[in-house]
Amino acid sequence: xxxxxxxxxxxxxxxxxxxxxxxxxxxxxxxxxxxxxxxxxxxxxxxxxxxxxxxxxxxxxxxxxxxxxxxxxxxxxxxxxxxxxxxxxxxxxxxxxxxxxxxxxxxxxxxxxxxxxxxxxxxxxxxxxxxxxxxxxxxxxxxxxxxxxxxxxxxxxxxxxxxxxxxxxxxxxxxxxxxxxxxxxxxxxxxxxxxxxxxxxxxxxxx
Length: 207
Description:
By secondary structure, the protein is mainly alpha-helical. It has helices at 5-13, 17-39, 42-59, 69-88, 115-133, 137-148, 153-160, 164-184, 201-206.
């Protein structure tokens, strides 16, 4: 039987530690990927991921379920990322480990992928990572949540604590800058990681 997040949370609050371990197994990879994409450092992202679940476990008795468990976890992780950036007193750096796709850690090369395709994909990933690192944190985070974690505009607005129109503007501006930088490097035709802006400039002004 596959338990929902709500089922596992309820069992965890009742003292079932194994149920919380199941939540960790379910959400550890997305939370780590979020932290890594925001701050760009493997070891610090692991620390943030561990601290996220530790804080969630401690705060679980007070979790009333007004928001989805996943959204609650994302909020904890994002707050920890912001704290990390403040402590560093500088913009996060994206360090791309050798042979690792920094912005799509879960993606695996297809068995039939040629060495030329593999190199091209990794070069594109590094270019995207470098361009993302130059964006303001609010724009970068909005893009990560929308394009890589599939969140809705409303969910992002709640996580970032801003109006819906602000989220759409951040996405439009951030994605526009990314496309321009990749076009400048001749990578736009192969740019598959970040989708087209979800609305036009005129639509952004109306929201």
